[in-house]
């Protein structure tokens, strides 16, 4: 605290006035500094609010992206299951078709075997009858 010199009618007026002027300057400087700090705080609050809004937006975007990703995974899983089922049905159809063709081929082969046996029997019969004819020719020639 400042001590003032005394004069005839009390403290010296110039010293007190100088002290009051100094105090006023300091108070004005502090008020100005506080206003500046208040303005800076207000700006920082606005900036903080802006970043909070951005964070909120990013969080929502992240949630939406996660949801979309989950939906894509679910859709892909469903599509893959559908493709697998289609592939199984196609495989069953192909196998059934191949089995039917194999059965028809086996039936055709059996029919060909029977035809060959029948053909051999007929050919044998024809050949035997031809041999009989040849034998009969020999008998005719000998008798003459």
Can you characterise this structure?
The chain has 1 helix and 2 strands. It has one helix spanning 13-143, and strands at 6-7, 10-11. The radius of gyration is 59 Å and the shape is rod-shaped. It starts with 5 loop residues before the first strand and ends with a helix. 0% of the residues are buried.
Shape, principal axes of CA atoms = rod-shaped
Low-confidence stretches: none
The largest sheet has its strands arranged as 1-2
Radius of gyration: 59 Å
Which range does the strand content fall in?
A: under 5%
Biggest β-sheet description: 2 strands, antiparallel
Number of strands: 2
Fraction of residues in helix: over 70%
| First-last Cα distance | 179 Å
List the helices and strands and how they pair.
Layout: E1 6-7, E2 10-11, H1 13-143
Main attributes of the structure:
1 helix; about 140 residues; about 90% helix; mainly alpha; 2 strands
Summarize the structure.
With 144 residues, this protein is mainly α.
């Amino acid at each position: 605290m400042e001590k003032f010199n005394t004069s005839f009618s009390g403290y010296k007026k110039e010293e007190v006035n100088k002290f009051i002027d100094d105090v006023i300057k300091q108070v004005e400087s502090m008020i100005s500094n506080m206003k500046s700090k208040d303005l800076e705080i207000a700006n920082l609050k606005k900036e903080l609010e802006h970043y909070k809004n951005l964070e909120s937006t990013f969080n929502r975007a992240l949630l939406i992206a996660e949801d979309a990703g989950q939906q894509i995974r679910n859709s892909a899983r469903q599509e893959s299951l559908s493709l697998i089922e289609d592939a199984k049905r196609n495989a069953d159809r192909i196998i059934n078709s191949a089995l039917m063709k194999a059965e028809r081929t086996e039936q055709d082969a059996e029919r060909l075997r029977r035809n060959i046996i029948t053909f051999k029997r007929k050919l044998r019969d024809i050949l035997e009858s031809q041999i009989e004819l040849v034998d009969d020719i020999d008998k005719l020639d000998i008798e003459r």
